[in-house]
Structures are given as C-alpha cells and as structure tokens.
C-alpha cells in the first residue's frame, strides 16, 4: 500500500496537523468491516485518514524522512495483510500504532539505524489543538527538546510520541500501551513535569 506521492504528502506533515480530516459520509466502523472482507477501497480510505499520523509517529522515531516513509508503508502493508483476521471490535487507530511500534522495533533490531525520539525537522506547533502541553513543547528549542525527551523513561517517551506525534487520543494511547485512560493521563502528566524540570535545569 505504498503511496507513490508520499514524499510530497509527508513533507507537508511537519507543517500540518496529524491525520487527514475525516469524511463525514464514511462511518469508520463500516470502513473497517468492509476492509476486513477484502474491500481494498475501504482500506484505502482508512489509509488516507491515518497515513499522516502514522508518518508523524515513525518520523518521531527516526532522523530520516525517507526511512519514516518506508516504515509507514510497511505499517500499512502489515495492517492490510492482518485486518481480515478474526478479532473483537477493532480500535483501528490504536491497532495501527501498535503495528507501527512493532515495525519500528523490528527496524531497530535490524541494526539499520539508531532510533531517535524527536528530530530537528519536526515542528511541535503542528498539534496545538492537543492542548497546553503541546504549547509547552513548542516553547522549547528543538535541540534542547530532543536532548530532554531522550532523558525520559521509555514509557514516558512513548506516551509523548503517541500523544503528540501520532496524535492519538488518551483512549487510543491507552489501548496502544495496554493501560487504562487514567494511567495514561498520569503518565503524560509525569512526563511533561519531568520534561519541564529537565529543560529548566539544563
């Protein structure tokens, strides 16, 4: 499911909001059901909705646009192959991010490249709608932010990547990390407080 124009589309992602605007005529659950029966067009609509947010997530884990594109394409390829498998009601966004996380882990284990959490080319202001926490990130210089985030514990770093780069909701992040909504709220709160302390002390 590689998008031949992804290099153009994803280049704009760093300046635009995560995810494509949902078409109100499409009910997501219906698209999922159709995709599970092999409807490639329905899967294509899901792809259009989530390609930007998945790209932002993979890009937050690497320093290369082209690599992020490859990891994003691999994520959707695996999703397309797996979506027909029987499962309970599917939280598509969380399921897709889980696949993306596994793709990134597989890449990391292959030794192709060291993972990075934030890169100089990611504009934190792109997701201002997420809330005041994002504004706090935007107030920090990118180099300082990258160094500070790298010092966070793994779970806090992952929480911020899912919330601010993949653009997942609290509920979707909870599903992706196999935690409760309350646990994610606490994790995000601790991560932001620790991030501020690191930046201030630095």
Description:
This protein has ten helices and no strands. The protein is mainly α and 202 residues long. The protein has helices spanning 6-11, 28-36, 40-59, 65-82, 92-110, 132-138, 142-150, 154-165, 170-177, 181-201. 36% of the residues are buried.
Q: What does the overall shape look like?
A: globular
In whole angstroms, the N-to-C terminal distance is 43 Å
Low-confidence stretches: 2-25, 111-130
Question: Helical stretch count?
Answer: 10
Structural class: mainly alpha
Annotate the secondary structure layout.
Elements lengths: L5 H6 L16 H9 L3 H20 L5 H18 L9 H19 L21 H7 L3 H9 L3 H12 L4 H8 L3 H21 L1
Helix pairs in contact: 2-3, 3-4, 3-5, 4-5, 5-9, 8-10, 9-10
Task: Give a concise summary.
This protein is mainly α. It has helices at 6-11, 28-36, 40-59, 65-82, 92-110, 132-138, 142-150, 154-165, 170-177, 181-201.
Record keyword descriptors for this entry.
single chain; 202 residues; mainly alpha; 10 helices; 0% strand; disordered N terminus
């Amino acid at each position: 499911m590689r998008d031949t124009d992804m290099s153009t589309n994803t280049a704009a992602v760093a300046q635009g909001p995560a995810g494509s605007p949902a078409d109100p005529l499409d009910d997501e659950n219906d698209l999922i059901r159709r995709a599970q029966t092999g409807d490639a067009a329905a899967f294509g609509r899901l792809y259009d909705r989530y390609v930007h947010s998945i790209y932002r997530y993979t890009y937050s884990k690497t320093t290369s646009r082209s690599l992020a594109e490859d990891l994003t394409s691999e994520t959707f390829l695996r999703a397309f192959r797996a979506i027909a498998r029987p499962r309970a009601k599917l939280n598509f966004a969380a399921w897709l991010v889980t696949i993306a996380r596994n793709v990134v882990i597989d890449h990391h284990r292959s030794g192709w490249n060291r993972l990075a959490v934030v890169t100089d080319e990611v504009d934190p202001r792109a997701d201002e709608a997420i809330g005041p926490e994002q504004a706090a990130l935007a107030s920090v210089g990118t180099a300082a932010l990258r160094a500070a985030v790298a010092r966070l514990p793994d779970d806090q770093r992952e929480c911020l990547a899912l919330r601010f780069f993949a653009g997942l909701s609290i509920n979707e992040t909870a599903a992706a990390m196999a935690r409760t909504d309350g646990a994610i709220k606490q994790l995000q709160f601790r991560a932001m407080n620790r991030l501020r302390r690191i930046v201030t002390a630095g």
